[in-house]
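[agent] plan:
  1. take the single chain provided in the ticket
  2. run structure prediction with default settings
  3. attach structure tokens to the ticket
  4. add a short note for the reviewer (M.T.)
[agent] executing step 1
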Amino acid sequence: MKTNPERVFSLVTYLAQLGERLRPFGLMFEEPRGETLPEECGRWAAYIRKVMDANNWKGRLLAHIHQKWGFCDATAIEASNFYIKGKK
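[agent] step 2 finished; step 3 output follows
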């Protein structure tokens, strides 16, 4: 997501446009090192959800955050906050 977000958004758009029988029930993204700031992962969640919503995909969006320096909990909360704010 950090180095090539356009590729991520293209994949999300492609999956969102699949027929209901082929489309997955949702997406999961990962922060693999536990070093990304919570605000950044929150924005990832908001942007991915925005692409999903723009394509009328009401699928689930999950985040897998690795623990390091307490960022795991803060990042999960921040991603949830961005997701909830985006729903309003």
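[agent] step 4 note for reviewer: The first strand starts at residue 26 and ends at 31.
[agent] ticket updated
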